[in-house]
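Build the 3D complex.
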Amino acid sequence: MTNQTSSTSEIPLIVEMRGIVKRFPGVLANDHVNFELKRGEIHGLLGENGAGKSTLMNILAGLYRQEAGTILVNGKPKVFSSPRDAIKAGIGMVHQHFMLVPSQTVTENILLGLDDPRFIMRLPEYDSKIAELGERFGLKVDPRAKIWQLSVGEQQRVEILKMLYRGVNVLIMDEPTAVLAPQEIEGLFETLRAMIAQGKSVIFISHKLQEVSAIADRVSVLRKGVATASGVASKGVSRQELARLMVGRDVIFALDKKPGKPGDVVLDVRDIYADNDKGLPALRGLSLNVHAGEIVGVAGVAGNGQSELSQVISGMRQCKQGQVILAGDEVSNHSTLFGIQHGMAYVPEDRTHVGSAPNLSITDNVIMKKYRKPPILKNGLLDMKAATKLANELKQAYDIIVPNVSTPVRLLSGGNLQRVILAREISGLPSFMVAVQPTRGLDVGAIEGVHRLLLAQREAGAAVLLVSEELEELLSLSDRVYVIYEGKIMGEVMVKGEGHDEALVDTIGQMMTGTPLDQIQNEGVAANG
Amino acid sequence: MDFTIILQAGIASGTVLLFATIGELFSERAGVLNLGVEGMMLVGAMSAFSTTIATGNPWLGVMTAMLFAGIISQIHAYIVITLQADQVVSGLSLTFLGTGISLVLGEGLSKAGTVSLLPNFSIPLLAQIPILGKIFFTDQSILVYVGYLLVPLAWFYINRTRPGLHLRAVGEYPSAADALGINVFRMRYFYVFVGGMLAGLAGATISLAVSPGWFSELTTGGQGWIAIGLVIFAQWDPIRAAVGAYAFGALRRLILDIQGPLLLLGFDNPFYYNPYLGFFLQMLPYLFTVVVLVIGSREAMRKRIGAPAALGNPYIRGERGK
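Done.
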């Protein structure tokens, strides 16, 4: 047996993790997980949010210490007490949140923490070294550019270069496609293939099935901290099977979305201009509208003005020009209260700081928009009995799983917190709702719940503006999708029916990288004619 | 009034601000706001003066000043870096502490007599340049020349060297620096110490060169606060800091000297006849400081003028992202 498995034709293992156990307060993140990586392969690591994929890989990258289990690199046991140790052993990780200093150049970021150069930074010399390295792996990026000037895709390339420059042989990519446009994803895949062609190995962490089956040679699946599949060839396993391994039950891919009956225009955004926090233009003449009874999506790569757009609409950011009209009244450059009085609901991107007051109870959080009126307001004071009653009703109706509504919301899981926010916003019977990244970081079950609530709003006749970076989410929920790029709308597409429309995705992808829709259509006509 | 003489004296008094400003700049570039500059300067001025009286050696005075101010800066460092307390509160209390220590230890020093001061000299050749030579290179204290050297060195260190790169990273994005093996805590302690030493040097510059003597808390007269304002005004750049420091030094001299003559440009000097106008003028640098601090404390404005992104935030390990 032993002789057979270690025969000469077998590709050697570069990394072996055996019986890894890691606990966090209240969670068993990794429960005796085994993981093997072969030299020169792309290994997909699948699992839902919270399944323990990132934990396992953070252990391999030296960020966390395992409580039990061993790591072998090239057959030798290793103990990593910091990312530096892991990099020394040839293992580097590119995190979901990039660790780049925005005010410094690409080269400076890559050289950070290294012993060479010793004292004086002879940057031009290193610029050309890094440009060369980039060329070798198809990672095009200007070494002299400052990080803040780069797109998210380019920043990711800098992170990869940072690891390659340190000579790693194993690159761990944590959800690398979450921030990329479809075309950029193809570019990333080419880079990964170039890397394995030059003898490196890649671990590709994702919760997206189709990506893993597209790029990975072998797949491992984690569910609730347990490995449900370990190193199966990705060709030999169907998507349905992988989904079952991930979730533990059959997943319904399609949502129950009834045909829409759009009514009058509820929200009309007319030619708005606004600056971001740095005082640089973030929105440059953006217009869109949302009708009653429809969900309108805003697609785009992160950082193209989505946050600023939702802030201008909700009244949290001033716009310099243009108007936001809600139910016939201008709400832009008014207080947020003015918008709320006009039927606005806002589900912000930042759940813990904007969407809720973390140290306050569920009760306090759900009455934040209702305390001015009876029944919460009674004789000029808060009626806490009525508030608690309301909170308990909402807890039931929105399936908020906590023992007690006096629990501070900072103790809630992401899904529960989002349900608290949605309960507050929806129970005000809004005529318009703007939801920004409402499902980010939630597990599959919670995502389904949020989607149902949004669709229910649509059916109740509310206008919903959904800002998301998940194209699939937009396509399955929206009636129309606008694509935003550098603060402008590149175009608007109708979403017909359900399922995956390749041509539509391609069109949206092109708009996400800055090609206006009319240009795409003209080219299409030219190509056909 | 001879303006070249005023400017010449202004450069000397600007050197005080220069040292304090560059010191605070290093500390802030590492992400630590230290509002204790005024206190550290007083400690420096007092210890420089008393050491020089006791030993007769002004160089020993300078070294004691830098060391003593550096050491008390580490109290602030411990409170805000290790204990992760609020930097504003800790910095303010450092000012009170420094003022108190220097008043107690400096009791009676003002009557202690004169001391041997640091040497003044002119730079051959450079002093011959018309006007500029007179202002910058004639009969200045050796510390003024040290100031001239410090500015380009500080700029080069921050922008063109490896430790400078690490310094900037620690102030901008400490978790990124930490992930690459840079010891954020040690770096912050070190640069707070550098800031303290330079504040001490600024104090020594007053008591041993610019206006020798010990006049209790009037020795510094709030210049530490102006230095903090200048760091913001300079947008954390040493060259701009130097321009600001010398400009303010010159302004200080001008405000003092303008109240002297009976006639100003051929007219009755209003500042001579109406002392309240003089007080008004003397207030201006502090008014400027208040305005700059107010502007600089606005989050949006700080981003716009390029404040170190992590300035004022304690670094807590394990909080990744953000």
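Chain A has a mean pLDDT of 87.
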